Amino acid sequence: MRPWIYLGVAIVSEVFATTFLKQSEGFSRLVPTLASLAGYGLALYCLSRAVQDIELGIAYAIWAGLGTALIVLLGWLVFRQSIDLAAIIGVLMIVGGVVVINAFSELEA
């Protein structure tokens, strides 16, 4: 169970860091820049711990897929960025791919 917790923290940390990356305005604002760097550091540390027990491809697919979906959702909800039908379908395909990998792959998770 512990590697999945690490993976969950890695996903949340990466989403946190990416959100502050936008607010850092090209690393020109100190606090959002530090928050972004700290979030990415924690995300990579937790991902490195997760892949000790979860197959690298599986862990990365979950990390990247769910992170992407959450960032698109936050961009829409928090930053009022527009999202069209093609983007929604693309994100659903990414999440669907993660589900297929986890449900049907014979790789050890």
UniProtKB/TrEMBL annotation:
Location in the cell: Cell membrane
Gene3D superfamilies: 1.10.3730.20
Listed transmembrane segments: 27-47, 59-79, 85-104
Coiled-coil annotated spans: none
Keyword Calcium recorded: no
InterPro entries: EmrE-like (IPR037185), Small_drug/metabolite_transptr (IPR000390), Small_multidrug_res (IPR045324)
Pfam families in the record: Multi_Drug_Res (PF00893)
This protein's UniProt keywords: Cell membrane, Membrane, Transmembrane, Transmembrane helix, Transport
Source species, domain of life: Bacteria
GO molecular function list: amino-acid betaine transmembrane transporter activity; antiporter activity; choline transmembrane transporter activity
Membrane topology according to the record: Multi-pass membrane protein
GO biological process entries: glycine betaine transport
Stated family: Belongs to the drug/metabolite transporter (DMT) superfamily. Small multidrug resistance (SMR) (TC 2.A.7.1) family.
Designated name of the protein: Multidrug efflux SMR transporter
